[in-house]
Amino acid sequence: MKKLAEIFAASAALTLLTLLPVRAAEDTLQVVQQRGYVKCGVSQGLPGFSNPDDKGNWNGIDVDLCRAVAAAVFGTDEKVKFTPLSAKERFTALQSGEVDLLARNTTWSMHRDTALGVDFTGVNYYDGQGFMVRAELGITSTKELDGASLCTNLGTTTELNAADYFRTHNMQYEMVAFEKADEAVSAYNTGRCDAYTTDQSALYAQRLKLTDPKAHVVLPQIISKEPLGPVVRQGDNQWGDIVRWSHNAMLNAEELGVTSSNVETMKSSTNPSIKRLLGLDGSFGANMGISNDWAYHIIRTVGNYAETFERNVGKDTPLGIARGVNALWKDGGLQYAPPIR
Ligand SMILES: N[C@@H](CCC(=O)N[C@@H](CS)C(=O)NCC(=O)O)C(=O)O
After folding, report:
1. 105 touches ligand 1 (CB under 6 Å)
2. Residue pLDDT, tens place only, 151-175
3. pTM
4. Residue 9: its pLDDT value, please?
C-alpha cells in the first residue's frame, strides 16, 4: 500500500510540474532595453580600470567596456550606470541580477567559470600577480619575501596564488586581507604590511594613492596568470554574445585602423572587413538582437582598443603601462579577436 501511495504522489508531482509554465530563458537584452540603461558592476575605485573622478564620473578601461556595451545596445555610450562592488561581493551581485555584467578586473579562472553560474566573455587585459615593497628595503625579487606580511583583498585569486607561491617555495608569510581595496592600500601605506600584493597593473594604480609613491617599487616578477575580463550570468547566450563582441569589435577596429576620429570617413571604405565592422554589409547586429551599426557606435563613442588602452592605462597616463602582452597578436601580443564575418 505504502508503495502505491508513493507512486501516486510521485506521478501527481510530475503532473504538477508539467502544468507549471516553463521558465523562459533569461533575456537580459530585453530587460536592459526596457530599463533604458545597462547596469555595470565595477570596482570600488581602481585608477585606469574603473575609477570615479571628483564629480562622480567613472572612467577606465573596464568602464569603457561597459560604455561600449551601452553603445552597442542603445547607440550611445551614456546609457549605463555603474555599481561599485568589492571583490568579495561581485559574483553575488551578478548572480542576483543587481548588475547586467561585471567589468571589474576579474580573473577568468576555471572555478569561477564552471561553478558560479557565470560566464567569462573574453579578456580585456592580460595581467599577472605582483608585489610592491618599500624601496628602502632594497628587495629586488619575490624570493626575498620569506616571512613577509602581505596586504591584499578578500575574495580574490591573489590570496590563493600567494598561498601556492609561498608554499611551493617553502617560504613563510602572513596574509592580511581586507574587504575594501582602500583599507588594504592604507594598511600597506601605514606600514601594517611589508608588501602589497595584487594584479601587477593594480599595483601601479594603487601606488598612486600612497603618501609617497616614489618610495615604493613594484617587483618585476609575476607569480600567476590573471586574465581579466567581463563576466555575465550563465544561460543567456545572446547577452553574452553582445558583451563578447563589443570587446571584439574594439580589437578588430584597432586591427583595421578604424578609430573614433576616422570612423566617419571609414564609412566609405571599400575594405569588406571594415564594411562588415561598421554594419554596412551583413546583419551581424540583427543576429544579436541589436542594430547593425552597433560597432560603429562603439568606435564612434568609445574608440578602438588602442584608444581605450592608451587613454586609461597607457604610456602617457599616470599608470604608464606599455602594451606588452596586451598588444594585438599581429604586433606580438595576445589580444586576438575572431573575425566579423
Ligand atoms: N584579479 C583578481 C583581483 C581583483 C581585485 O579585486 N583586486 C583588488 C585589489 S587591487 C581590487 O580590485 N580592488 C579595487 C576595488 O575593490 O575597488 C581577482 O579577480 O580576484
Report:
1. yes
2. 999 999 999 999 999 999 999 999 9
3. 0.91
4. 52
CA distance 212 to 210: 5
**Residue 206 pLDDT greater than 80, yes or no:** yes
Average pLDDT over residues 280-300: 98
How many residues would you count in the chain? Answer: 341
CA of 88 to the centre of ligand 1 (A): 9
| Beta carbon of 50 within 6 Å of any ligand 1 atom | no
What is the residue-averaged pLDDT of the chain? 93
In the reported structure, the alpha carbon of residue 211 is separated from the centroid of ligand 1 by a whole-number distance in angstroms of 21
Query: What kind of fold does domain 28-126+228-331 have according to CATH?
Result: D-Maltodextrin-Binding Protein; domain 2 (3.40.190)
In degrees, to the nearest 5, what angle opens at C-alpha 124 toward C-alphas 80 and 188?
Answer: 90
CB-CB contact of 91 with 112 (8 Å): yes
Q: How far apart are CA 202 and CA 282, in angstroms?
A: 40
Q: Is 77 in the pocket of ligand 1 (CB under 6 A)?
A: no
Q: Where exactly are the structural domains of the chain?
A: 28-126+228-331, 129-224
What is the position in ligand 1's atom list of the atom closest to the CA of 84? 17
Is the domain defined by 129-224 classed in CATH 3.40.190.10? yes
